[in-house]
Amino acid sequence: MQTSQSLFSRAKIHIPGGVNSPVRAFKAVGGTPPFITKADGPYIFDADNKRYIDYVQSWGPMVLGHNHPSIRQAVIDSAENGLSFGAPTELEVQMAEKVSELVPSMEMLRMVNSGTEATMSAIRLARGFTNRDKILKFEGCYHGHADALLVKAGSGALTFGVPSSPGIPADFAKHTLTMEYNNLESVDQAFAEYPEDIACIIVEPVAGNMNCIPPVDGFLQGLRDLCDQYGAVLIFDEVMTGFRVALGGAQQKYAIKPDLTCLGKVIGGGMPVGAFGGRTEIMEMLAPLGPVYQAGTLSGNPVAMAAGLASLEQIQQQGLYQKLTKNTATLAEGFKALAQKHGIPMSVNYAGSMFGLFFTDIEKVTNYQQAINCNTEQFNLFYHGMLEHGVYMAPASYEAGFMSAAHTDEVIQQTLDIADKVLANVAQA
Ligand code: PMP
User: Fold this and answer.
1) C-beta 211 within 6 A of ligand 1
2) Does 264 sit in the ligand 1 pocket, CB within 6 Å?
3) In angstroms, rounded to a whole number, what is the distance separating the alpha carbons of residues 301 and 232?
4) Helix extents (H) in 31-102
5) Is 60 left (phi over 0), alpha (psi -120 to 50) or beta?
6) How remote is the CA of residue 58 from the centroid of ligand 1, in Å?
7) Complex ipTM tops 0.90
8) Any idea which residues bear N6-(pyridoxal phosphate)lysine here (predicted)?
9) Is 238 in the pocket of ligand 1 (CB under 6 A)?
10) Domains of the chain
11) What CA–CA distance (Å, rounded) separates 244 from 350?
C-alpha cells in the first residue's frame, strides 16, 4: 500500500474524514489525497516521494512559491526570540504600517488568526457601527465558517436566508440576505425592501470559491453606490484576492474603495494569519477604543508577523505582478486552446494570479448557477489525469487555481504539455 493511502486510513481513525479542512479529503473528485511532506518553489512532494507542480499554493498565500528563503529565515530568526508573548510588539506596528501603505483604504487594522475570524469580526463591527442587523452576501461567495455567513438563499429572491449547515439556528440565518453574484438589480431590490436594516454588503471582489469569477463591469461600483445611498458598510473580503490579483488587492485593480477589508493567508506568508481594517471612524468602534468587542490571545503573533512582513517585502519587487498576471493568462489560455484542439467545451476566467477552468460551453461564466452546472465528470477525469502526471490542482471544480512567482515559463509549458495528453484522454472517454 502507498504511504499516502496508509496515512489516510490512519488519519480517518481520529480525525473526521481524515482531514482538518473538508476540501482536502478529495470528496468531490474521489480517491486518496496525497499526504504532503515538503514543498519548494512551484512544487510539493508527497509521502510517496512524488513531485507535483502545485497550483493550489496552500489555497493562495504562497504568492512567491513555497518555502521562500527570506520568509523561512525570518521565521527562524523570530522563533529564536520566543514564540508568543500576549503583549504588544514592534512587529505588529510594522505590519499595520505596511498593510496600510499597500492597501490605503485600511487606515486602521487589527490582526486575527484566520480569514474566518476576519470576516466574522468585520461583520460584527459593521453591525455595531450602523446599529443594523441584516447583512447581504452573494451566492457562491465563501467568507469562512461563522454562523451568519454559512447561509444560502431562501426559495424566493428576497426571502430570509436559510442555514447551509446543521448547527446554525434559523434565527441566526434570518438576518443574512443572499443575492446573485454580478447581479446588481437583485441588490437594488434588497435595499428597496430593507432600506434601513442592511448593515453591510460583504463580497469577494473576485469570487474564488465558485471557481474563479471576476466582477462584471460596473458590479463593484454599483455596490459602492448602493452602500453610499443607504448608509451601509461595504466590506471587501480580500482573503483570497489581497496581494494576489494586484499588489493592492482587487480594490486597486478595480479602483473601488471599500469601507472595510478582510485579509488572510497572504499576509502570513503561510502562517495562520488574517486581518480586518478600514476607515478610522469605523475601526475606532472596536474595543478598547469603542464598544464592539473583539480579541485574540495569539493575534499578531510575532513569528507570523515576521513571516508576513518578509512576504510583503518580497512581493513589492518591481514587475512581480505583471509577470504573475502574464503567466496566469498564458496558462489559462493555454488550457483553453488545448481543450479546443481536443473538441472539449471549456471556458476560462482569470484575474491577476487566480484562474479557473470551466468544462462548459458557456462563453463567460459570471455566476454560481453557471459555475455549478459545468461538466464535473470531465473535470474529475481531467483532475485525476493531471494528478497522475504530477500536476496538483484544487480538488474540486468549484475552486480557483493559483499561480506563484516560482512557476517559470518552463514549468508552465510542462503543465500544458501534460494537459495536452490528459485532455486527449478526456475527449476519448
Ligand atoms: N474568505 C475567503 C474569500 C476565503 O477564500 C476564505 C478561505 N478560503 C475565507 C474567507 C476563510 O478563511 P480561513 O479559511 O482562513 O478561515
Assistant:
1) no
2) yes
3) 32
4) 69-79, 90-102
5) left
6) 12
7) yes
8) 265
9) no
10) 3-67+318-428 (3.90.1150.10), 69-315 (3.40.640.10)
11) 12
Cell of 286: 472596536
Q: Which residue has 496581494 as its cell numbers?
A: 243
Cβ(268) to ligand 1 under 6 A? no
CA 334 to chain centre: 23
Q: How far apart are CA 110 and CA 91, in angstroms?
A: 13
What are the φ and ψ backbone dihedral angles of 375, each rounded to 5 degrees? -80, 95
How many Cβ atoms from other residues are within 10 Å of residue 424's Cβ? 14
| Closest to 124 measured CA to CA, from 273, 295, 298, 240 | 295
pLDDT surpasses 60 at 237: yes
Predicted local confidence at residue 153, as pLDDT: 75
Which residue type is seen at 409? D
Residue type, 338: L
Distances (CA, A) of 157 to 134, 185, 300: 15, 11, 40
> Is residue 156 scored above 80 in pLDDT?
no
- Taking CA atoms only, the protein residue closest to ligand 1 atom 1 is 143
End-to-end CA distance of the chain: 28
Rounded distance from Cα 182 to ligand 1 centre (Å) = 20
The predicted model scores a pTM of 0.97
